[in-house]
Design brief:
Blueprint lengths: L1 H20 L4 E9 L10 E4 L5 E3 L5 E7 L3 E5 L6 E4 L9 E2 L10 E3 L4 E3 L7 E5 H4 L18 E4 L10 E4 L12 E4 L2 E2 L12 E7 L2 H4 L10 E6 L5 E15 L9 H13 L19 H5 L3 E14 L3 E13 L6 E14 L4 E15 L7 H4 L10 H4 L19 H6 L4 E15 L5 E20 L2 E4 L3 E3 L3 E24 L2 E24 L16 E25 L3 E12 L8 E12 L12 E15 L10 E9 L4 E10 L8 E14 L4 E20 L11 E24 L2 E11 L1 E6 L6 E3 L5 E4 L6 E4 L2 E4 L3 H6 L17 E3 L14 E4 L5 E11 L2 E11 L2 E4 L2 H5 L12 H4 L30 E3 L2 E12 L2 H6 L4 E15 L10 E2 L2 E2 L1 E2 L8 E9 L1
Length: 1014
């Protein structure tokens, strides 16, 4: 608006000055605008700077325009550098040769069975450069994606070695099937876990977020698709590089627990509060007791990440080789994850018409099973010693010398750690062979065959031991071994034709794919090895109860696909895709499904009415629609299955083997379908310094799959179920991505902000099951509300005195909580019927955030560089299931948080949030699920801080290096949250998410690293 005002003022001033300085002569100027090859470029904007007077070039690249001597001619076209020239009094012909500008909009983006320039996209695709991913040292490169792309939610869920993050693209699309996106590596669909990839191998990630982008993957694309392009060879001499980082994760004790003296004091008070005798005569004589955490959990665990790359080649042959190693140890005396990966990529150009390439990816993962019982080190009573008295150890094996907990049912965690022998891993190799042939100009025929073969193995040994004959023991040792062989192959054939004529550009692609998965396994176990010696932990050494299992299963998909992309003047775009999938998981007419999409874009910045906005480099409006499928259910659900068991019957109570239906066939079963619309705009400003993207999306899932129980009158057991397409769900939201990059002198900076909002609503359920509950009925899903909301009792603080207990009654004076005492939780009679029953349960929280956001800052000054990544989730609730363990002193008598006698209610006005300590929970303070457990789950996490220094090249060259950079980094350094649980990043499925228990937390990691090129 200000610019328009200034233009009008300038025009008025010019009119006033005409009588003084005379009339300025307007004349006709013309010219031709070509690219670097000499071809005319249509649609180029030619504007008199500071005015709305302008035109665009015709199909030959020519233009004609009226101008006045002294005015500035401004020429701009997306993907090329802007140019200006001052109109002289004598000149009338002004030709321009456009120079390509490699800004973000000119990047080549993977779009599924093809590529396109980012400026030509009509769909919602976010791209992240590989360099941005390798700034974090993580086992799974997707972990580094958090906060770097709008619309993508990465939930770490567990920081355990080898654990994979949970990735949601624009939220859940299914309440039953998996929500993870499909990962496609170099054109090969590789499932939903890319633990096998090292971030240093990745050139870029392109995230297909809407249906118009993902529909080309049909029945596998409903949760979005992440296309990963690995690094390839380049022309020129061989370049070597190596990246090494070493660091430690730090595991601080999450809660300070009571020592032996305080534990005894708390338990005494808990007993006295229910009129029972105190157990400990002199708690102070117990001292601090056993420091279980200090004895069994290591504060530091090392992490090593190393990779080596080499690439080079010539015009005819290019190659890239990489090797990587990642190792993460656990915090226990057992538990570790190691990964070795190799990647070899070879590409040949045999002629102008024939190209070929091969990729091989051998890899190896192995792990010692990481324990999952760190909570036991906190909950076992501190009075119990680790070992039995020496006098009692005589004659016991090495796994029986430990002491059973005196007061709790918690197994001795150090003894459990000593018996943890499970380990496993796999050997795998993937290969990718392609050939392209161009029989005529602009027609490319490509055939690609891929395979991935994985041999999984798992071994376990369970020793015999007796720590407590009634509770903690195993009479007979056993050994087991499990082998599984997974095979996957994919054959894809595509033909792509590109036609460019004048201002028109048309690209068509047709193709067909065949995919097949096959799995086979064999498992054996035996018992009674002569002793627990490591040398005898083999099946042949066991002497009894041998069991063997084995099976084979598989599924396949046959697909036909096509895409047409058209643009006119690089201003008006239209793209349509169509895919037909036939899946072996379904029968009859349901075997085949069609997945269409249509998207369009309008480069509005090239229109005449947008001229004069010189700060605007590019502005494009996009919209798309499409349908996707989800067939991520088990194979063979269209078959009826039986399960075996036993039943005791007859006067002699004999055991009879039984067989009963466990699943009834549903021959009408079909895949879930997701219908998606997307509207967005992409803007580039200030000579490509700033970019912005705003999008609105809406997704509707229909034919949603649920596992339905049989009614009792059907005659089938109530544990039998049938999978059926009965539900629908709708989700919608906004996405925002802003970035700005510039420099001040030698200080370069780049700031990116991403954000997403989201809402989700269940729109249809079965008439026979209008309500779906989650585990233990703690969540509820009904039509018209969000799925999986927390369902329980509302509370109103604690009773502070007996008068409040007596006043909490019906209109007839009947106590609503007859067993309550001062210090107990007051539950609300929601329906007002004068009774406290299950009918008073209601919505008490939501696991779904209002929005998520990420901020990424990068700075460089001379040889120094600095980056920071921040991620936040705002507006969601979490269930803190640990309150029962940390505050309750019921008969389990587990250890509790230190200071509980002061923080729990111990008299009128002392607390209104933590109930009194009590050895009996008659009021169901802890057993009744209520909003007492629900907390604000919002959090902000500093994901990464890194400071690096690149050694001057003159010094690097003396060491034989072309580049050397050292850095220090801190990951997950700070988390700001009101949530009192261990970890605010909590996963789950749509019906059961946000339940925070004793999950392995995401931990701070401190690293030093080295990047070298030579």
């Amino acid at each position: 608006m200000k610019r328009l005002i200034y233009n009008k003022i300038g025009l008025l001033t010019l009119l006033l000055l005409i009588p003084v300085f005379g009339f300025a002569q307007e004349k006709t100027i013309k010219g031709k605008i070509t690219d670097e090859t000499g071809y005319g470029v249509p649609g180029v904007s030619v504007v008199i700077q500071g005015t709305t007077n302008g035109t665009i070039t015709n199909i030959e690249g020519e233009y004609v325009l009226n101008a006045i001597a002294g005015e500035t001619l401004h020429v701009s076209f997306i993907g090329y550098k802007s140019q200006t020239v001052v109109v002289s009094a004598s000149g009338s012909v002004y030709d321009f040769v456009l120079e390509e500008e490699f800004i973000s909009l000119n990047e080549v983006v993977a779009i599924g069975y093809g590529k396109a320039q980012k400026k030509d996209l009509t769909s919602a695709i976010s791209s992240v450069d590989g360099d941005a991913l390798k700034t974090m040292s993580v086992g799974n490169p997707v972990s580094a994606l958090q906060g770097k792309a709008a619309g993508i939610q990465v939930v770490s869920g567990s920081g355990a070695p080898g654990s994979a993050p949970k990735v949601l693209i624009r939220g859940f699309t299914s309440v039953t099937l998996g929500a993870e996106p499909l990962y496609v590596v170099d054109g090969v669909p590789m499932g939903t876990n890319i633990n096998f990839l090292n971030a240093n191998e990745i050139e870029r990630m392109d995230v297909l977020k809407d249906a118009s982008a993902s529909a080309i993957y049909g029945s596998r694309g409903s949760n979005g698709v992440i296309l990963i392009t690995t690094k390839k060879g380049k022309d020129g001499k061989t370049n070597f590089s190596a990246d090494l980082s070493y660091g430690v994760q730090v595991f601080e004790k999450p809660y300070e627990m009571a020592d032996a003296t305080e534990y005894a004091q708390i338990m005494n008070q808990s007993l006295l509060n229910v009129n029972l005798d105190a157990r400990f005569d002199d708690p102070s004589s117990l001292g601090k007791g056993t420091d279980w955490w200090g004895e069994g959990v290591n504060k530091l665990s090392p992490q090593t990440n190393f990779s080596f790359q080499a690439n080079g080649g010539s015009e005819k042959f290019r190659y890239a080789v990489s090797l990587s190693y990642f190792d993460q140890e656990s915090f226990y005396n057992s538990g570790e994850w190691e990964r070795f990966t190799g990647r070899i990529s070879l590409d040949w150009t045999f002629s102008d018409k024939v190209k070929a390439g091969i990729m091989m990816n051998p890899r190896r993962e192995k792990w010692d099973n990481t324990p999952s019982w760190y909570q036991d080190y906190l909950l076992i009573d501190p009075i119990t010693p680790i070992y039995r008295p020496e006098a009692e150890q005589a004659g016991l094996n090495e796994y029986s010398i430990f002491q059973r907990s005196y007061y709790t049912y918690t197994w001795n965690p150090i003894a459990r750690d000593a018996r943890n022998f499970g380990n496993g891993g796999y050997y795998a190799a993937a290969s990718n062979l392609y050939v392209t042939y161009e029989p005529i100009e602009n027609l490319e025929i490509k055939s690609q065959i891929n395979g991935d073969f994985k041999f999984n193995h798992a071994d376990d040994f369970i020793p015999d031991f007796v720590i407590d004959g009634a509770h903690e023991w195993n009479a007979v040792n056993s050994v087991s071994r499990d082998y599984q062989f997974d095979k996957y192959w994919n054959w894809t054939n595509t033909a792509t034709y590109t036609l460019k004529k004048d201002a028109h550009s048309l690209t068509t692609m047709v193709g067909a794919t065949l995919e097949k998965w096959n799995y086979s396994n064999i498992e054996g176990s035996k018992e009674n090895i002569p002793n627990n010696s490591e040398l005898l932990r083999e099946l042949d050494a066991a002497t009894s109860n041998d069991k063997i299992y084995g099976n084979e299963w598989g599924n396949s998909i046959e697909s036909f696909l096509g895409r047409v992309s058209y643009n006119f003047l690089n201003r008006y775009y239209l793209t349509g895709t169509y895919r037909i999938d036939g899946a072996s998981k379904f029968l009859g007419d349901n075997k085949w499904g069609a997945f269409p999409s249509l998207s369009a874009a309008w480069r509005i910045s090239d229109e005449t009415f947008m001229r004069g906005f010189n700060f605007l480099d590019d502005m494009k409006i996009r919209m798309g629609w499409g349908r996707l499928g989800n067939q991520g259910l088990e194979s063979g659900l269209f078959l009826s299955t039986l399960s075996t068991g036993y039943y005791v019957m007859g006067d002699d109570a004999s055991v009879v083997n039984t067989t009963a239906p466990s699943l009834l066939a549903n021959e009408d079963l079909k895949w879930e379908t997701v219908e998606d619309i997307n509207i967005g705009t992409d803007v580039t400003l200030f000579n490509s310094k700033a970019t912005a993207s705003v999008e609105y999306f809406q997704k509707k899932t229909i034919d949603m799959l649920f596992e339905m129980p049989y009614p009792y009158y059907s005659g089938y057991p109530n544990y039998s179920s049938i999978m059926s397409n009965i539900g629908s769900m709708k989700s919608s939201g906004w996405e925002l991505a802003l970035s700005y990059r510039d420099h001040i002198g030698e200080l370069n900076f780049d700031v990116t902000l991403t954000a997403m909002t989201g809402q989700v609503e269940m729109t249809k359920l079965s008439n026979t099951a209008p309500v779906v509950y989650g585990t233990d009925e703690k969540t509820k899903t009904v039509v018209g509300d969000e799925p999986g909301y927390y369902f329980g009792y509302k509370t109103d603080g604690l009773f502070q005195n007996q008068y409040e207990v007596n006043s909490h009654s019906s209109d007839q004076g009947v106590l609503l909580q007859p067993y309550a005492q001062p210090g107990d939780i007051r539950f609300i009679d929601v329906n007002g019927d004068g009774e406290l029953t299950g009918e008073d349960r209601t919505k008490i929280g939501s696991p779904w955030p209002d929005f998520t956001t990420g901020l990424n800052v990068s700075l460089s000054y001379k040889g120094f560089d600095f980056l920071a990544n921040v991620y936040a989730s705002i507006g969601n609730d979490l269930v803190n299931e640990l309150k029962d363990d940390l505050y309750s002193t019921t008969a389990s008598e587990s250890n509790v948080k230190s200071g509980l006698l002061n923080t729990a209610w111990h008299g009128e006005g002392t607390s209104n949030s933590i109930p009194r300590v009590s050895h009996v929970d008659n009021n169901q303070n802890y057993t009744r699920f209520s909003d007492f457990y629900v907390e604000d789950g919002s959090f902000l996490r500093l994901k990464n801080l890194q400071l690096g220094y690149t050694i001057p090249q003159s010094l690097s060259e003396k060491a034989g290096l072309s580049r050397c950079r050292v850095y220090v980094s801190g990951q997950n350094l700070l988390t700001v949250t009101n949530y009192q649980g261990v970890e605010p990043e909590v996963g789950g499925n749509a019906l059961n998410t946000g339940f925070g228990g004793w999950t392995y937390p995401v931990l701070p990691t401190y690293l030093v690293g080295l990047n070298i090129n030579f």
